[in-house]
Every structure is written in C-alpha cells, then in structure tokens.
C-alpha cells in the first residue's frame, strides 16, 4: 500500500482517473480497516480533481468513519478537510468551515503540519468568499507559517497567491503585487505551468486595474504562452477574457478573443465563465447597435444564469442525500431531512421561475424599463420583420421637457414620460394592428405603423395631439403657467427601411427640428417625395 500511495502522491493531479480505478480494484479484496480508510480517501481525492463531488463526498465520509474508528487523527483530519472542500465548492459555507475547523483541530493534536496548513488555507478561502477579509487574512497567514515550517514551496506559492487575491479584492493593489511576485518566484522553481499561467494572468488583471496596459499585455501574453504548451484550459479561458479587455476598442480582435474563450468554456462546461462571456458579447453588440446579436447573447447569458442556479441546487440535493446516508445521529438526520425537503421545494421553484422568466425574457429585453414601450432593441427587431408596404415614421419630442424637469423634479419628469408613452400607445393600439411606439432616449419617441390609406397619417397626428391635450399636464416655469406639449416630424415611405434606418431617422429628425424652430406644439409631416 505504501508504494501505491507514494506513486499516487506524484500522479494525482495528472492521472486522477487511473488512481481511482487502481484504488477501487484494491478495495475489492482489501479487509484491513486502515487500508480501506486510505483507499477511500484516495478515491475521494481523485474524484475531487475530476470535480465529481457526489462521489468525492461519499468516499470521504467512508474514509472519515474508518479513520475515526482507528483513532487516526492525521487521517481523520485529511478526510474532514476533503469533506469541507466539497461543501465549500457547492456553497455550503457554514458546513465547510465547520469541517475545516474540525480538520485543523485533529491535525493540531498530532502536529500534522501539512494537513493543518491546508485546513487553515481553506478556512481563509471560506472567509474570503463570505467577505470576512480580516479573518481570511489571519488564517492565510497561519497557513503560510505552517507551509514555511514544512518547507512546502508549492503550497507557499498558492497561499501567497491567495493573499494577493485578497488584497486585490480590497483594492490594495501594491500589496497584491508584492504577494503575486512572491508567489511567482516560488512557482518558477516548480514545474506547474498552469499555476505559472494563473499567476501571470492575475498580474495582468492587476495592471489592467492600474490602467498600465503595456505591463498588463506583457503578463497576459506570458500567461498565454505558458498555457499554449499545455495545462489548465480553464485558466486559458480566463486569460483570453483579460486579453479581450485590453483590445475592446478594436472590434474584430475583441470579439475574436471572446469567441475563442466561449468555445473553450463550452468545451469545459464552465458555466460561470460562459455567463461572463455572453454578457460581454451582448454588451458589445448592443453598443454597436447589432441588437439581434445582442439579444441572442443576452438570452444565452440569462439561460446560463438559470442553469448555474439549477445545477447548484441539484448538486446540493445530491450532497444532502449522501450526508443523510452517512449520518448516524437521529436528531441530525431529522435536520438533514428537513433541509432536503427545503432544497427540493427550492428546486421546484427555480424550475417554475425558469419557465416564467423565459416567457418574459423577450418582453423585458425589447421594452423600455421606465415607460414599458419598445426600446431600440425592440425597434430593430420590428424593422427586421417588416413586410414590403407603405409605412409612417413619426418622431415626437416633448417640448421644453428640461424646463419641466428643472421645475418639478426628475421623479415628476419620469411620471410625465410614462403618461406620454401611455397616451401614444393608446393612439397606436386604437388606429393600427401592427404599429409600435419606441422610446428612442430621453423625451423622444418614435411611432412606426403601416399606412392603411391616405387619411391615416392625418388621423394619427390629430389623435396624438388630442390625447396629449387630454392629459392636461400643467407646470409653472419662471413664474408662468405652462402646459405640456409635443412636437413631431414624420414621413410616409415605401423604402426598405430595415436596411437603411439611419437615413430615415435622419430625415424625420430634420423635420422634427423644423417643427421646433417654427414654434413647437406642432407636427410636420411629408410624403416621401417631399423629403
């Protein structure tokens, strides 16, 4: 058994599947409790490296039970620490820290420095994740002292990196740099290129935060060169995301890097990175007014968020079932069953929320949050589905809206925008079957509708003016009573507007300007030939 363990210690990060299979085979014919405890531990550890957390927890519990029977405190500490790791990665932070403290106590009793080091580091991880930075730093530093005492250079590097990340999150960038550099110096003495790539990536991110883009690029290029020759593909995805930040002003390079990162994240099933990538791609396309692509990526972002939540709950359910299976305390079993029932109900709620949110997604994506009429995304989608025919484009603007805002306040101004939008929507619904109202920004609205007959534009304009007048919105400005009015400019066109909307928009904006210049509270409208 000792020869196996010695070999497994060297190979666990590179060949976890092989180690699991070897340990399972040995387990079939093994009767000694101490050996069974060790085999279960290595099977659990192999599954941890494969991120198969339910099997990891199952075998870790079996290992813990055997080591406890043997009164083997060092083995018990290792098993308890591994159980804590499973709970930590699945968001059970209270359980995780409890198991880590138990591991630390067992390790301290027999002066198992390496295990105590790992338990302290993991306690620091929990506190960092929950925002308790002082406690996190305390346990990281305790772990570092133990790593120095046991002359574990690699683990010292990991803890320095964790301290750097903690300082980075606290915006102590110079402190973070110092820790990262110490980590890097130690890693250069090792052979783990993935760890080197990770620390170079973190240095790149730090320089991005400092806005020193030359240094940032140097570190990120170095990180990318390390990872190209092999190593952790998850790190490669994160490096690509940081590189993309450097070139976001250059459309082709930015999207190219993000697409490469997306493909990597998809191959790894890395939902937390996919969510970030989809959000960046959606924002990029929206900024460039490619609303169709922006919407597609926004949907993927939303669906990935839901998938993360749903997967998290499913994982928690499975871990709770395993914990119930291994529990011998009746009161604890009752508590676990209660928690299991809660998580099952929570899973059902998430499934229902997913169904509802998917049905609402299109509306919330296409609608202006304040006024509930269409936004620019909705307009582009509408234009993309327009059939050939004659259409009215009418651009409307609230007169002297700044005066109203200045005298009545922004809250009252928002309410007026809602009232005007509702009035315009009422007119469009009454007169058309397919027209839309879009808030173009600020106090500017656009109406697009198919033109049924020659009288339609006039009916539309008269109805809008009557509806705004009916609102009767009064306010005082410079000691004078004012009534809220609107001005507009519009055309009727048979052009394929979806292919050159900006030209049409420029035309009606010019006509609106003309109406404003000639007195406001009026709507100018021209046929296509007169524009």
What does it look like?
The chain has a five-stranded mixed beta sheet, with helices on both faces. A two-stranded antiparallel sheet has the order 4-5. The protein is elongated. It has 22 helices and seven strands. 73% of the residues lie in helices and 8% in strands. With 531 residues, it is of the alpha+beta class. Helix 22 links the parallel strand 6 and strand 7.
Could you give a quick summary of the protein structure above?
With 531 residues, this protein is an alpha+beta fold. The chain has 22 helices and 7 strands. It is elongated, with a radius of gyration of 32 Å.
Strand content: 5-15%
Mean pLDDT: 86
Report Rg. Answer: 32 Å
**Oligomer state of the chains in this structure:** single chain
The largest pleated sheet is described as: 5 strands, mixed
Principal-axis shape equals elongated
Number of strands: 7
Structural class: alpha+beta
Number of DSSP helical runs: 22
What topology, given as strand order, has the largest sheet? Answer: 2-3-1-6-7
Approximately how much helix is present in the residues?
over 70%
Low-confidence stretches: none
Succession of helices and strands = HHHHHHHHHHHHHHHHHHEHHEEHEEEHE
Question: Could you tell me how far the N terminus lies from the C terminus, measured between alpha carbons in angstroms?
Answer: 90 Å
